[in-house]
Amino acid sequence: MLCSLATKLDQGQLAEISSLEKELGTPILAFACHPMDAASIDTAKIDRLKELEDRLGVALVAVKQ
Questions:
Q1: Counting runs of H as helices and runs of E as strands, what totals does the chain give?
Q2: Maximum pairwise Cα distance, the chain
Q3: Residue 55 and residue 51: Cα distance in Å, rounded?
Q4: CA distances (Å), origin 8, targets 5, 17, 20, 52, 64
Q5: Which of 30, 47, 60, 61 is spaced 20 to 30 A from 3 at the CA atom?
Q6: How many CB atoms lie within 10 A of CB 49?
Q7: Facing residues of 9 across strands?
Q8: What is the pLDDT of residue 65?
Q9: Is 62 within 8 Å of 41 (Cβ atoms)?
Q10: Do residues 36 and 1 touch, judged by C-beta distance below 8 A?
Q11: What distance in Å separates the CA atoms of residue 54 and residue 60, rounded to the nearest whole number?
Q12: For residues 18 and 12, what is the distance between their CA atoms, to the nearest angstrom?
């Protein structure tokens, strides 16, 4: 399973989250999760992945097609 920030929330959903933020007094992040399996890659490919992660400042995940 892979989760990322939820980007397809409608106005009603955003309003509900905003309301709960006010009630709790703290920011809330919304995530959407998707079924996904990691790809099996060799050490050289993992090293390349890590190099690009470091350069871009993001986390990358190789997944099965």
A1: 2, 2
A2: 49
A3: 6
A4: 9, 13, 18, 27, 24
A5: 47
A6: 15
A7: none
A8: 86
A9: yes
A10: yes
A11: 10
A12: 10
> Could you report the per-residue pLDDT of 43-65, keeping only the tens digit for each?
999 999 999 999 999 999 999 98
Contact 64, 47 (CB under 8 A): no
Residue 42, CB half-sphere, CA atoms under 13 Å: how many? 1
DSSP3 helix / strand / coil % (the chain, rounded to 5): 45, 15, 40
> Tokens 């090293």 appear where?
47
Q: Locate 12 and state its tokens.
A: 């009603």
| The amino acid at 60 | L
Q: Tell me, what amino acid is at 51? A: E
What pTM does this model have? Answer: 0.68
The larger pLDDT score, comparing residue 6 to residue 65, is at 6
Between the alpha carbon of residue 22 and those of residues 15, 36, 39, 58, 63, the distances in Å are: 11, 34, 41, 30, 38
